[in-house]
UniProtKB/TrEMBL annotation:
It comes from Marivirga atlantica. The chain crosses the membrane at residues 157-176. Keywords: Membrane, Transmembrane, Transmembrane helix. This is Uncharacterized protein. It comes from the Bacteria.
Amino acid sequence: MKKQFILYLALITSLTNCTTLTTTRTVDIDPIVKYGVISEPIIAEVKIGEEKVVGEYSIKNRLFNSNKEYAENMAISDAIQKVDADYMVQPTFDIQRKQKLTTVKVEGFPGYYEKFRPMEAADTAIFKYGNQYPQANIIEPSTVQEDVESRRQRRKLGIITGSVVLATLLLLITGAF
């Protein structure tokens, strides 16, 4: 009975260690432009917070190189969720690598949309002269996830490790060792 309990415990442990956790958030601060959709331009009044907000996200070093934009977006998402903001103005990133983890910290001013109204003729001058200045860096929406190849490698490694642990436990229980 005791051997069966140990066997079941080993089986459950090996199966629960082979799970994958994926977190995805979307950051979209770009104007909405959809093909085939005609919409009336809308002007929004915005309020920029006076105090900077900080966000942070950590990712494994081997995944950071292919998912830099994802890590930055997750840090922005963390920051704007803390103060319930709509977007971040002038984000600055601090990227630190320590051992196996890369930590992305972002600092910026929170932005809030306050009033929405239809665009009027007087508003067109703002857009006419506003386009003469360099555009700010707009962070595109990101739904970047881990590469499929790295998932397959981890899955194979998990299966191999689980099989070796299970086989070793079976040999120990049956007394073959």
